[in-house]
């Protein structure tokens, strides 16, 4: 039995990875390091590192991510300090606090959400190897060294 969906894990054989994989980081858990997954990810704890998901990322109320988030979709109720690049839809719930830039195709912001940074919509995020924000930082460093 899978602890995430209550079904026998054998029933997922042959299913696309992004559908069959679910990951959860519980409240009270602190992880330091990057997370990369083909499936959905829910965080109710704290993460110091980047998230790379080919599916959906959900941050629960009280969660904290100190790092960048790259995903297909995201729902944020907690706090993020870093760049958020979402290929499809980003939802900032009423308890969300974002300190960093957002790049997304569609953005939904509930009343009460807090966002400090820049936002670009309708653009496809760059490959995760180097985002536009990271490119600007590199160019600024080069200019400062001249």
From TrEMBL:
TM ranges: none
Coiled coil residues, start to end = none
Biased-composition ranges for Basic and acidic residues?
129-146
Where do the segments described as Disordered lie? Answer: 122-146
Cited InterPro entries: BacA/B
Report the family membership.
Belongs to the bactofilin family.
User: What name is this protein filed under?
Assistant: Protein CcmA, bactofilin family
């Amino acid at each position: 039995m899978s602890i995430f969906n209550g079904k026998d894990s054998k029933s997922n054989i042959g299913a696309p990875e992004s559908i069959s994989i679910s990951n959860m980081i519980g409240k009270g858990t602190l992880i330091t390091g990057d997370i990369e997954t083909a499936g959905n990810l829910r965080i109710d704890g704290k993460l110091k590192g980047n998230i790379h998901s080919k599916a959906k990322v959900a941050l629960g109320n009280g969660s904290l991510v100190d790092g960048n988030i790259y995903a297909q979709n995201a729902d944020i109720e907690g706090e993020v300090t870093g760049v958020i690049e979402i290929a499809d839809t980003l939802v900032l719930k009423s308890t969300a606090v974002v300190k960093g830039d957002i790049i997304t195709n569609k953005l939904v912001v509930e009343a009460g959400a807090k966002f400090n940074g820049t936002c670009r919509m309708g653009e496809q995020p760059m490959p995760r190897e180097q985002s536009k924000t990271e490119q600007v930082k590199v160019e600024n460093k080069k200019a400062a060294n001249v």
